[in-house]
Write a structure and sequence with these properties.
177 residues, 8 strands, four-stranded antiparallel sheet, single chain, 3 helices, 23% strand, alpha+beta
């Protein structure tokens, strides 16, 4: 994929994933589908970047058709991972083009807490249902005793494109500057 063969790599990953599914090799299937979805998200991010670059240059961007369909993998992937004996961690960058804080923290004095709103570019075509999202705010010095955790207060569904996510802290701490 790194050598300009992204569509060929995606096609091969689809074939490999289908073979692993038929062979009932769940852990290998999960690993390959995660790579497939990550590569598809990377291709979508590149397509969006080219589209915006072409628009900025005064040219009309042509819509590039997705050659390898990757929808319908996510629901099955999530179902299989629930049955695995261990937890999987996937970097946020695998499925999101950018993550940024939208505005400033919003303080809630009556609740002794604060909240942040994040903007994310979700790159997959399948909707992603999230039961709970957590955000960690860490100090630059690396002192883990000063980390703050914020989380969503309800489930959220990510749909392809720009998504907003609100997270709240439980308590404000004066030690965090």
């Amino acid at each position: 994929g790194e050598g300009g063969w992204a569509q060929v790599e995606l096609s091969m990953l689809v074939l490999y994933a289908n073979c692993l599914k038929e062979l009932k090799r769940k852990e290998d299937y999960v690993r390959v589908v995660l790579k497939l979805l990550s590569r598809a998200a990377m291709a979508e991010q590149e397509r969006l970047l080219q589209k915006s670059t072409l628009k900025l240059g005064g040219y009309k961007a042509s819509a590039q058709e997705e050659l390898v369909p990757t929808n319908s993998y996510l629901p099955e992937l999530l179902a299989i991972t629930k049955s695995l004996p261990h937890e999987l961690q996937v970097p946020l960058e695998s499925f999101f083009g950018f993550v940024e804080v939208d505005g400033t923290p919003r303080y809630h004095p009556e609740m002794d807490s604060f909240g942040l709103q994040l903007r994310l570019q979700y790159l997959l075509t399948d909707d992603l249902n999230i039961e709970k999202a957590k955000v960690r705010i860490a100090t630059v010095s690396g002192d883990t005793n000063r980390d703050l955790w914020l989380e969503t207060d309800s489930p959220i569904t990510f749909k392809e494109g720009l998504v907003r996510l609100s997270v709240q802290s439980n308590v404000i701490t004066s030690r965090f500057h």
